[in-house]
Amino acid sequence: xxxxIIYDLDGTIVFSEPIGVEALIKTLHELNISHANFDLNxxxxxxxxxxxxxxxxxxEHMIRDAKIAWFNNYIRLAFDEGMLKLAPNIKETLEKLKxxxxxxxxxxxxxxxxxxxxxxxxxxxxxxxxxxxxxEVESPKPAPDTFNLxxxxxxxxxxxxxxxxxxxxxxIAAKEFGAIAVLYDSPITPHKIKYxxxxxxxxxxxxxxxxxxxxxxxDRKKQ
Length: 223
Fold this sequence. Notes:
CATH architecture of the largest domain: 3-Layer(aba) Sandwich
Distance between the termini: 10 Å
Order of helices and strands: EEHHHHEHEHEHEHEEH
CATH superfamily of the largest domain: HAD superfamily/HAD-like
Shape: globular
Largest sheet: 6 strands, parallel
Radius of gyration: 17 Å
CATH topology of the largest domain: Rossmann fold
Number of strands: 8
Helix content: 40-55%
């Protein structure tokens, strides 16, 4: 019986990746670093710490300065300029899931400060029973550590969980964790990182309310 729904945040609940890319381009420009050799539209789906380590080749001083600059640029673009958008129908879907008694969680590669600001901005905090960010695990997605910690904190088993995310990293982590993997076919996520022939989701949804139909289907199969 499914008791818990674990959501990815960026690209699934909110459309943040274009902001992350623009913030990174601005940051590199401020630091006089060319981004011509990097496909930022793909790399931005990695945790920002990993991405900056790749760009600055583990130069801790540059990574620290770039992280501060990126964070400030992201905040300005996302909240001051209003670029951050909520995925269609997600709030209504969360409301219905909560009313049906499901535990809801977020497992994200983002940092807690940004997660907290995002949920506060869109008035979503009240829906979630647990939040695990990249700062709390040794190995982020596609490793299953994020979901393992959520399950431990909520005292649920992996086979009670559905994971909803927009990339193959979510799908890989969900499968390793032992949950049902649902791909949210986000309109902003590049197709080549959604999934491939090896890492296939159990279900694909194009709209968030479709998850409710999947839950009904799974309930009927259990009867």
